[in-house]
Design the sequence.
């Protein structure tokens, strides 16, 4: 079959999923206007308002009202990609091995917390201080991931269930220590003391956009993860186990160890994302619930079809949409939760394998016919 | 021929699978009332697909189906059954733990209140068995009955559901000679009662013996309909493959030397408490092909599973060059020089969604020559896979193509290329050519002989009599988990004798069988 045409098909399929989800979002926004706000009960002006809101969502992250390029918004969008790139990569690695480990969410929180503590209590020279903090966070999260991984390999417990539960264990353990040990009582809200200045991750351009050097690190890790998955024997083994575990076993691969490895790497990457986010954006630890980056990471991995190289694009798309929805919520009287509706719709269409399968079948049929026309009855067994 | 004579008519059927394989291309097919009609062709010629369409298991991409003069859409097997079409699959669709009667009435179970009316089920089964002259006991559990009887249960199942057209997919593939004779007697009985039978096969002598007409398929197309009486076997085989099939395998006489594989007193009882391996002992020497024949399900698969640690026996030993291989990780078994062509290539042999290259290297990615530090040496990998594709004549566009997009024969060549190229001392080939085309079969046979003549020990497990008799230097026969016969020289063997051993009518003395254990 024509592989390039199938690639096109996948691209078109993705685009359609996105457009349909935007349309679904639009319908909901329209309903919001119709039942609430100034245009209540007036379908005509609700439609006008809907298009106004869509303009905010889709165009305003890039351009100001006067049409000039909005660089500040843009930098903020890039900054928002930092933690989700890491969780997206983590999910890619784990999903590639067919391990539906969902503990990336909790790992981000633990990673952030551990990095913050290292930043507060350890005196290390600037430059290497944040590196040490993030590495410690990564190691801790990698070790935590051993729990669902070992339970899976040794006892056959579904990693999906154990990791999902583990998220809440991680959340409340962190909250316990935050509330009873490390909270800074001089602050108005529950948060730790600020990390030492040496542990801060600086902005690339110091302008308050929060686009820190963490972004560069994230991109470096995209390259490293892609290399790992497609250019090393371990990444290869992870992918083969994901495609066919029986085949991997029969081929002599160490299935159990590699399943554990994939989940540990997932924990390491998620933990790094959490650590970098806390040291870069907040310089203190103030999360009181799960930050949601782990869930976004799952969306990204599905959008990127588990290919690390596509994660930055998926992360940009989601961050852009996020920013657009925030602007829309601020200026247009549309609830900020709309981003969740649109994300969920994209998620549904991407995850649905049969979506557009009829169209796919048509592509396949026409491809096959074209192939057959070229070579009447291919002679099996003849060398190429 | 007049269309109105036909009970089933398929016109212009084209079927393209989602993986792009065109299994049927503009096929016309028709059967008359009260005939036995053979549908023949090589593996992969599209017979099964055509019949799956007629039974509602697959939907045609193009084409019409007309049953009893009425155009129908067979959207599912239930619809097909309602139109009087029944199918007996090659692999039986029975529930082993239920009785014959329960299997026969499955899905249309007679009830007494909330409970199953078992007596009524037995009555229905007995009545129908008598009507069609089938000799079966409704009270036996399916797991306990022989293959031939299982097939009868399947046929009865279809008849009880009102089938007037019966599709039999390679019904004799799993039967012994004696069971086949019995089946034919019954099929002719059904024909005389006005039933129509579609008989899928590639055994030409059987087709000649029993059918009235035949349709020949090649490469997804119908190449003609013939009266069976008016065509010779040679003509049929020419139409089937478009060239003369050479089934003879050229090979020198084996000169076996040291023992490589030594199996002693292997025992295994499966989860349904059936003894699948009963004190199995044999050895395979360098430079010989030892065939393992037998009707499927007599312990051959279990034996192979044990030898590659896909299962663990209850007792016994197995050694390769003096080193234990039972319960040892596959990596270590492979390092000892053991290769396996697995029976189920889609489950074990390949990772379908991965590329050809990735499938070629799965057992050797750890080797130094394919790695530069922690990274792969992509050039070395490419060279390896391209070399194997060329050497094993895998028909593909590039090594980056997904393996599952290839035809069955080419998929098997990928498996064989990997397993044969690792410099093995022992090759376990389990059904190495099942379901693939003649060209690929011939190629794999040739390679297997070549390797054995260069000193590799080969254990060939095959349910294909032709294959196991032609290729093997010496041969053992499995029946009921036991080795019942050993033939040091296969050249004097014939089908009938084999059939008697395979059916358990005859067995050799322990002394005769013991000769297969070489020191």
Sequence:
């Amino acid at each position: 079959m024509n592989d390039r045409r199938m690639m096109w098909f996948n691209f078109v399929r993705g685009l359609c999923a996105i457009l349909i989800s935007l349309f679904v979002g639009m319908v909901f926004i329209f309903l919001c206007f119709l039942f609430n706000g100034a245009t209540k009960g007036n379908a005509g002006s609700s439609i006008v308002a809907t298009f106004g809101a869509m303009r905010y969502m889709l165009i305003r992250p890039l351009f100001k009202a006067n049409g000039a390029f909005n660089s500040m918004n843009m930098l903020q969008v890039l900054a928002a990609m930092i933690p989700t790139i890491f969780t997206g990569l983590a999910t890619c690695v784990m999903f590639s091995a067919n391990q539906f480990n969902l503990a990336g969410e909790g790992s981000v929180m633990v990673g952030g917390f551990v990095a913050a503590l290292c930043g507060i209590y350890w005196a290390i020279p600037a430059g290497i201080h944040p590196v040490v903090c993030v590495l410690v966070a990564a190691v801790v999260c990698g070790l935590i991931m051993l729990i669902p991984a070992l339970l899976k390999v040794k006892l056959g417990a579904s990693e999906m269930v154990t990791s999902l539960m583990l998220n809440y264990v991680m959340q409340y353990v962190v909250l316990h220590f935050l509330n009873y040990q490390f909270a800074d009582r001089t602050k108005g809200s529950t948060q730790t003391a600020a990390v030492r200045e040496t542990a801060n991750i600086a902005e690339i351009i110091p302008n308050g956009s929060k686009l820190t050097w963490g972004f560069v690190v994230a991109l470096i890790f995209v390259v490293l993860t892609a290399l790992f998955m497609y250019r090393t024997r371990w990444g290869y083994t992870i992918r083969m186990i994901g495609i066919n575990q029986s085949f991997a076993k029969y081929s002599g691969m160490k299935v159990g160890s590699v399943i554990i490895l994939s989940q540990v790497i997932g924990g390491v990457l998620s933990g790094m994302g959490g650590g970098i986010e806390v040291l870069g954006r907040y310089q203190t630890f103030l999360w009181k619930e799960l930050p949601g980056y782990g869930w976004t990471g799952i969306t990204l991995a599905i959008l990127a079809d588990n290919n690390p190289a596509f994660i930055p694009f998926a992360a940009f798309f989601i961050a852009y949409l996020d920013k657009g929805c925030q602007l829309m919520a601020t200026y247009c009287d549309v609830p900020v939760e709309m981003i969740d509706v649109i994300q969920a719709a994209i998620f549904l269409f991407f995850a649905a394998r049969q979506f557009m399968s009829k169209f796919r079948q048509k592509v396949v049929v026409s491809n096959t016919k074209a192939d057959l026309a070229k070579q009447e009855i291919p002679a099996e067994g003849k060398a190429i | 021929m007049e269309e109105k004579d036909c009970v089933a008519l398929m016109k212009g059927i084209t079927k393209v699978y989602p993986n792009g394989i065109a299994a049927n291309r503009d096929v016309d097919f028709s059967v008359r009332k009260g005939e036995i009609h053979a549908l023949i062709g090589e593996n992969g010629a599209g017979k099964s697909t055509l019949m799956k369409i007629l039974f509602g298991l697959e939907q045609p991409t193009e084409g019409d189906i007309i049953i009893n003069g009425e155009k129908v859409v067979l959207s599912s097997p239930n619809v097909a059954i309602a139109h009087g079409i029944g199918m007996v699959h090659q692999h039986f669709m029975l529930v082993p733990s239920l009785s014959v009667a329960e299997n026969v009435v499955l899905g249309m179970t007679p009830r007494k209140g909330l409970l199953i009316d078992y007596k009524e089920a037995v009555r229905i089964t007995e009545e129908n068995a008598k009507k069609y002259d089938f000799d079966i006991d409704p009270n036996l559990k399916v797991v306990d009955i022989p293959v031939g009887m299982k097939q009868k249960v399947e046929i009865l199942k279809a008849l009880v559901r009102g089938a007037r057209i019966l599709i039999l997919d390679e019904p004799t593939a799993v039967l012994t000679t004696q069971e086949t004779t019995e089946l034919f007697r019954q099929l002719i009985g059904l024909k005389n009662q006005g039933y129509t039978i579609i008989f899928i096969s590639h055994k030409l002598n059987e087709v000649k013996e029993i059918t009235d007409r035949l349709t020949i398929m090649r490469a997804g197309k119908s190449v003609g309909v013939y009266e069976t009486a008016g065509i010779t076997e040679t003509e049929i085989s020419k139409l089937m493959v478009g060239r003369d099939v050479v089934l003879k395998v050229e090979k020198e006489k084996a000169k076996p030397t040291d023992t490589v594989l030594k199996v002693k007193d292997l025992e295994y009882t499966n989860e349904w408490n059936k003894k699948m391996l009963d004190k199995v002992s044999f050895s395979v020497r360098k430079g010989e092909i030892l065939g393992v024949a037998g009707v499927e399900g007599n312990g051959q698969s279990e034996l192979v599973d044990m030898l590659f640690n896909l299962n663990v026996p209850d007792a016994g030993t197995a050694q390769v060059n003096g080193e234990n291989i039972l319960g040892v990780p596959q990596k270590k078994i492979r390092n000892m020089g053991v290769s396996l062509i697995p029976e189920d290539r889609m489950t074990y042999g390949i990772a379908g969604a991965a590329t050809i290259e990735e499938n070629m290297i799965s057992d050797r990615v750890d080797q130094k020559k394919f790695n530069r530090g922690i990274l792969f040496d992509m050039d070395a990998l490419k060279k390896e896979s391209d070399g194997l594709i060329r050497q094993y004549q895998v028909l593909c566009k590039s090594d980056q193509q997904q393996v599952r997009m290839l035809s069955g024969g080419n998929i098997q060549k990928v498996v064989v290329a990997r397993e044969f190229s690792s410099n093995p001392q022992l090759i376990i080939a389990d059904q190495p050519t099942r379901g693939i085309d003649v060209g690929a079969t011939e190629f794999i046979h040739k390679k297997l002989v070549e390797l054995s003549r260069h000193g590799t020990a080969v254990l060939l497990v095959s349910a294909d009599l032709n294959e196991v008799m032609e290729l093997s230097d010496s041969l053992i026969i499995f029946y009921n988990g036991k080795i019942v016969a050993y033939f040091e020289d296969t050249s004097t063997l014939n089908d009938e004798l084999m059939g008697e051993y395979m059916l358990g009518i005859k067995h050799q003395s322990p002394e005769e069988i013991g000769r297969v254990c070489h020191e």
Summary: The longest helix of chain A spans residues 3-35.
